[in-house]
Amino acid sequence: MTTTALPPFWVVIPAAGIGSRMRADRPKQYLQLAGRSILEHTLDCFLDHPQLKGLVLCLAADDPFWPALPGASDPRIQRVDGGGERADSVLNGLLHLRELGAQEGDWVLVHDAARPNLARTDLDLLLAELANDPVGGLLAVPARDTLKRAGADGRVQETVDRSVIWQAYTPQMFHFAALHRALADALVAGVAVTDEASALEWAGLSPRLIEGRADNLKITRPEDLEWLRQRWVLKT
Ligand SMILES: Nc1ccn([C@@H]2O[C@H](COP(=O)(O)OP(=O)(O)OP(=O)(O)O)[C@@H](O)[C@H]2O)c(=O)n1
Ligand SMILES: C[C@](O)(CO)[C@H](O)COP(=O)(O)O
């Protein structure tokens, strides 16, 4: 890690998804992990950070679960409505950040509600490594397994060179104006952007990859939550 002082930053947490792949009785961010919701664990990764300027939480407009949580009235959390896709939710969050006073060059970190296991060391690594970067970047993990390209018949076509393949994680950290412009333009152009870096790439920029911990995983399927529940027992 570099010795640069950590820069001030804003946070946007997209939490308006329905978690269809979890097949649970509620959106996955409200499932329990060690006695609290996944979303509360995720918020805790940021709320007491000394460099945090403000946090915007993007929720489904008709979300009945958030008001029931103990932290729902926490004044440090600004709630906004999400949108149809993750990128729409993030864009709404950015629009609200502007109302809160975010300036063009301010750093914004976007982090999935469904990644509750972000280590403070990884967060600070990202902030330190990118503090003076002209573009910004993201936490990511190098591919670990041998990779295969599949054909439509489900048979291997070829083995892919994994040395250049990374998995994109969050947080993703970009300057407010650049991220807002790239995301808004990409959505208008109908480009599918599944993360913030995709929007910046589409705008012709090259985000930096910062190697993070693999256990900052996104809870996507039931086995991800099972794995994290077992890990939490060991942690506490
Ligand atoms: N319209 C949407 C869709 C997703 N998200 C958020 O984006 C993050 C990552 O998305 P994903 O894991 O795909 O979550 P879901 O869309 O909820 O899951 P699924 O695709 O299985 O339905 C999650 O924190 C999710 O709540 C969001 O804010 N707004
Ligand atoms: C942003 C993200 O977490 C990067 O890996 C991911 O793309 C979001 O989830 P989705 O499954 O693509 O909606």
From TrEMBL:
InterPro entries: IspD, IspD/TarI, IspD/TarI_cytidylyltransf_bact, ISPD_synthase_CS, Nucleotide-diphossugar_trans. The record marks R21, K28 as: Transition state stabilizer. The record marks R162, K218 as: Positions MEP for the nucleophilic attack. It comes from the Bacteria. It is an enzyme of class 2 (transferase). Pathway: Isoprenoid biosynthesis; isopentenyl diphosphate biosynthesis via DXP pathway; isopentenyl diphosphate from 1-deoxy-D-xylulose 5-phosphate: step 2/6. Its EC number is 2.7.7.60. Pfam families: IspD (PF01128). It catalyses: 2-C-methyl-D-erythritol 4-phosphate + CTP + H(+) = 4-CDP-2-C-methyl-D-erythritol + diphosphate. One of its GO terms (biological process) is isopentenyl diphosphate biosynthetic process, methylerythritol 4-phosphate pathway. One of its GO terms (molecular function) is 2-C-methyl-D-erythritol 4-phosphate cytidylyltransferase activity. Keywords: Isoprene biosynthesis, Nucleotidyltransferase, Transferase. Catalyzes the formation of 4-diphosphocytidyl-2-C-methyl-D-erythritol from CTP and 2-C-methyl-D-erythritol 4-phosphate (MEP). Belongs to the IspD/TarI cytidylyltransferase family. IspD subfamily. This is 2-C-methyl-D-erythritol 4-phosphate cytidylyltransferase. It comes from Aquipseudomonas guryensis. The lineage of its organism: Bacteria, Pseudomonadati, Pseudomonadota, Gammaproteobacteria, Pseudomonadales. The gene is ispD.
